[in-house]
Amino acid sequence: MSGKHGAPKHQNKYAWKPKAGHKINETEVGGKFRPYSEITGVCPRCKEQIDWKRRYGKYKPLAEPAKCQQCSKRAVRQAYHNLCPGCAKEQNVCAKCRCRVNRIVGRDSSEVEAEQKSLDEAIKNARERDRRTLLRAAKVRFWDKMTHQDMEETSQHASLLVVAKRPL
Questions:
Q1: Whole domain around residue 131: which residue ranges?
Q2: What's this model's pTM, rounded to 2 decimal places?
Q3: Residue 61, class by beta-carbon neighbours within 10 Å (0-12 exposed, 13-18 middle, 19+ buried)?
Q4: What distance in Å separates the CA atoms of residue 93 and residue 43, rounded to the nearest whole number?
Q5: What is the pLDDT of residue 46?
Q6: Residue 49 or 25, more confident
Q7: Is 138 within a domain?
Q8: CB-based contacts of 119: which residues, under 8 Å, 6+ apart?
Q9: Distance CA 75, CA 68 (A)
Q10: Count of domains in the chain?
Q11: Is 15 within the bounds of a domain?
Q12: What string of DSSP letters covers 92-156?
């Protein structure tokens, strides 16, 4: 055991960064082109815990979907979650710690799909100038939030963008 107690002798000159000496491949999960998925379905406390793991290099994403502890289906697609989104929403609990909460962080897939439908309707009914503006905004949002789980949807979304850009 150390005999030293009290404040540190000097302040760090720069913040610690995980894997500072390792070059990260931009195409791997967590890289520039495939960032981690958005943290959804958890309470604010659990979100902070998962954020900490991401910041300090302790986060390990799921390689394949895990089993839900409630319904035993392989439907858990986010790391450190114990319940699938359906069971968590049905019971109104956090998907990680299973505590009852009033406020859940993030949006579920039904909200995202509803937003996508409304965006498609807006693009369909808009004039050319507004359509291009909406497509630019959607493209920026799309590339900012692209994840490992959404790679299958990438080709579908890209085809939607191509179809929406065609002149009528």
A1: 109-165
A2: 0.60
A3: middle
A4: 8
A5: 94
A6: 49
A7: yes
A8: 134, 138
A9: 6
A10: 2
A11: no
A12: TB-TTT--B-S--BS--HHHHHHHHHHHHHHHHHS-HHHHHHHHHHHHHHHHHS--STTHHHHHH
Report CA torsion sign: 122, 128, 130, 136. Answer: positive
Residue 147 falls inside a structural domain: yes
Residue 62 resides in a domain: yes
pLDDT confidence of residue 118: 84
Tell me 70's DSSP state: T
Do residues 129 and 123 make contact, with C-beta atoms less than 8 angstroms apart? no
Are residues 113 and 102 part of one domain?
no
Note whether 123 and 164 are within 8 A (CB): yes
Question: Tokens 């150390």 — which residue?
Answer: 2
Check whether 164 has a pLDDT greater than 80. Answer: no
- Residue linked to tokens 């920026």: 140
Tokens of 21: 């000496």
Element housing 14 (H / E): none
What digits encode the pLDDT tens for the residues 107-117? 766 777 788 88
Tokens of 113: 């799909």
Which of 17-31, 34-48, 81-95 is least confident?
17-31
94 and 113, same domain (yes or no): no
Angle at 90 between CA 68 and CA 95, to 5 degrees: 45
